[in-house]
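Title: Comparing notes on inverse folding

I've been comparing how different people in this forum approach sequence design from structure. To keep things fair, I'm posting one structure and asking everyone to reply with a full sequence. Here's the target:
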């Protein structure tokens, strides 16, 4: 009996790990793909020409960012290439393109809660009615909210810095972007110190609660 219990626990752990990995990949993939579509809508075909307008997660994975999503709950994907020279207003175009990523994560979280409600009410059989699928949806929502919030932090190279840049004078904006390569080191340090987690975890819960109350 003990051996059967251990096997059951191992199976459940494996299933939950796979569902969490699938949720992380979906969050990151949707985020980056929406950056590309926003840029294309504003006149920049760079992402399309480099085959980054894709829901194939292998086109977007940054292995360090993926590891951080597992370890800390906050991470990143390989950035979609954007050429602001195609935009009529480069700073504003970059801000809208950047904002598309976090916005897509909040919409994905809303969609996952809406689907979970439909499954709960109608209770279909098969995969859609499984507890495993419901677990996937409830993992997906807070992860997606967390990724959206994390990327809104005004630290280069995150999306929040580009959104903030639309409201800054050109000189200040380009000075901020000049330090983009050092921003990742700052983010890693803040993540390991638990600063980003402390800042965002409460906001994740409040937004999840808001979305849940809206849907249910």
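Reply #1:
Here's my take.
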């Amino acid at each position: 009996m003990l051996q059967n219990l251990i096997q059951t626990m191992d199976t459940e752990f494996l299933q939950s790990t796979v569902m969490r990995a699938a949720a992380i990949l979906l969050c990151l993939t949707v985020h980056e793909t929406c950056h590309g579509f926003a840029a294309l809508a504003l006149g920049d075909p760079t992402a399309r020409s480099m085959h980054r307008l894709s829901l194939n997660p292998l086109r977007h994975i940054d292995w360090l960012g993926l590891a951080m999503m597992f370890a800390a709950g906050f991470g990143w994907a390989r950035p979609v290439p954007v050429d602001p020279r195609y935009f009529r207003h480069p700073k504003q175009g970059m801000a809208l393109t950047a904002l598309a990523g976090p916005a897509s994560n909040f919409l994905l979280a809303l969609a996952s809660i809406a689907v979970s409600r439909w499954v709960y009410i109608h209770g279909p059989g098969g995969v859609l009615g499984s507890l495993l699928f419901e677990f996937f949806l409830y993992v997906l929502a807070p992860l997606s909210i967390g990724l959206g919030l994390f990327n809104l932090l005004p630290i280069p190279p995150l999306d929040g810095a580009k959104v903030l840049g639309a409201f800054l004078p050109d000189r200040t904006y380009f000075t901020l972007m000049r330090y983009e390569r050092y921003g990742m080191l700052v983010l890693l340090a803040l993540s390991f110190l638990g600063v980003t987690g402390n800042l965002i975890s409460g906001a994740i819960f409040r937004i999840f609660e808001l979305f849940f109350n809206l849907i249910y």
